[in-house]
Amino acid sequence: MKRKSVVAAVIEHKGRILCVQRPANNYDYISRKWEFPGGKIEAGETRQESLVREITEELSVGIEVGDLLLTVEHEYPDFHLTMHTFHCTLSPDTRDPDLRLSEHLDLRWLETTDTAFVQLDWAAADVPIVEVLTANPSVGA
To answer: Where are the domains of the chain?
Structure first.
């Protein structure tokens, strides 16, 4: 089975967490699902460098990468995913983010205590992150 190693950002801004919706995909199990933004780790990059690059490319915004929040191991039908998830904040020079979606369909800034946060149709690999954030709302703060 193919193995993929990626990074994801739990980006907190003003008490809310950024959630993004994936585009349509050949894999029904991740098509149009909600996720935490991020992507592939390129050769020669640290996980943190990959995350900064991916968020800049996908959302046109700078971030500061904090602590590792959780590493998720998930078996999808076609590949095994290892996702290293970091707590992040917007760069200090960003007051109100004007995010430009280059790969995603939609975005929402939600509080982890908001029922809409849990009710999003999350990609399966992102569900453990949602569970950690809702079990301890101060994790993302």
So the answer is: 2-95+102-136
Instruction: Specify the pLDDT at position 4.
Output: 92
Cα(67)–Cα(126) distance, rounded to whole angstroms? 17
Q: Write out the E strands in 34-105.
A: 34-35, 38-40, 63-75, 79-90
Question: Which CATH number is 2-95+102-136 given?
Answer: 3.90.79.10
Does the predicted model carry a pTM greater than 0.85? yes
Name the β-bridge partners of 79.
2
Q: Report whether pLDDT(100) > 90.
A: no
E strand or H helix at 39: strand 38-40
